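As noted in the main text, all predictions were made from sequence alone. Below is one such record, for CTCK domain-containing protein.
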Amino acid sequence: MSLLCAGNSITKPCNVTKGKVYLDSNGCKSANEVEVTTCGGSCGTYAMYSLEANMMERSCTCCREESTTKKDVEMICPDGSKFNHSYIHINRCGCQKTECVTPEATQVTRSQRRRR
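Prediction:
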């Protein structure tokens, strides 16, 4: 599901993004390109006033990995030596609930520190 934001721009949903790169480690390079993955995109984070509760209600989520696999790749060094290197491959991303940090709470904490 895509969301419309200010300026009518379309925001991409939380999803896995894939790319291919050679991995480097201590001057050694992967024998082949490796598929690297990242999580990115929009989740349904919001803050709104609740008439019933007479306060702000917040829901914060972040786009992060939900399923990963450990993969191995062969690394080749300039001297011809080889070794296996493990890395994490993201299979699936999703929106997961997280703590909302309010500007008011941050402001109170800062002003309390100044008084001490």
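DSSP finds one helix and nine strands in the chain. Residues 103-115 form the longest helix (13 residues). These features were considered when defining construct boundaries for the mutagenesis experiments described in Section 2.9.
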